[in-house]
Amino acid sequence: MKYQLNNYYHEDCLIAMKDIPDKFFDLAIVDPPYFKGPGKRKFYGNDINKLNIKRKQYGEIKCWNVPGQEYFDELVRISKNQIIWGINYFDVILGPGRIIWDKCNGTSSFSDAEIAYCSMHDSVRLFPFMWNGMMQGKSISQGRVMQGDKSKNEIRIHQTQKPVALYEWILQNYAKPGDKILDTHVGSASSLIACYNMGFEFIGFEKDKDMYIKSMKRLKQRMDQVDLFNIEIES
To answer: 190-198 vs 164-174: helix axis angle to the nearest 10?
Structure first.
């Protein structure tokens, strides 16, 4: 296999997956596009939302292709378990397990929640975490509480970016030490940052060149940070 762990590739995931052995990954955590792109939807195209607040402007994503059945077949082939965001938008038959991310939106005009398929159980699990503009959740355990310090908010680089905390919660609850993680549509790199933070090996793919450059920069900035609490001081 030409792909190495702890690497992030600018490549079409459907092409890349054909080179990956069966069940190579322990867990695939993916967020494939489920519509033709933000520019195709009036909601995302409006400069001003329903609350008369100016939306942040993002660069155009050119490679925004909705996956078909072949993608899901390959994903199941190369991974032992899967968590697939936006599953309610795809005409694909999988199991009943679901994860609901409650965004704690309040009066926001955005969707109140997002839904993922989870192959690891047959029930529904809820993760509340505030993600409305600058009001981001305080912590994984206090997701409904606004953190208060806006300087700690994640910088948004992608129209459908998800918080690092969401992926950290997923890894805490659905991955075990030594697991290899796959993300086929990396986007903002929140998933890979969470893997790095928690010590999981990963491989990620992103087809859009501009987004790959932006998210790679975001990932490298996190990986280049020095954790002062883990520095050993010589006596």
So the answer is: 50
Spatial CA neighbour of 192 closest among 171, 213, 178: 171
Give domain limits for the chain: 7-225
The first and second tokens of residue 164, run together, are 């690092």
Of 180, 227, 202, 210, which Cα lies nearest the Cα of 60? 210
Report the topology of domain 7-225.
Rossmann fold (3.40.50)
For residues 95 and 161, give the distance between their C-alpha atoms in angstroms, rounded to a whole number: 25
| CA dist., res. 129 & res. 139, Å (int) | 8
Q: Is 179 exposed, middle or buried (0-12, 13-18, 19+ CB in 10 A)?
A: middle
Residue-by-residue DSSP string for 48-104 = B-TTS-BPPP----S------HHHHHHHHHHEEEEEEETGGGS-----S-EEEEE--
Dist. CA 77–CA 13, nearest whole Å = 14
Mean pLDDT by 10 residues, the chain (235 residues): 95 97 98 68 46 48 73 98 96 96 84 96 97 89 92 88 97 98 97 98 97 96 72 42
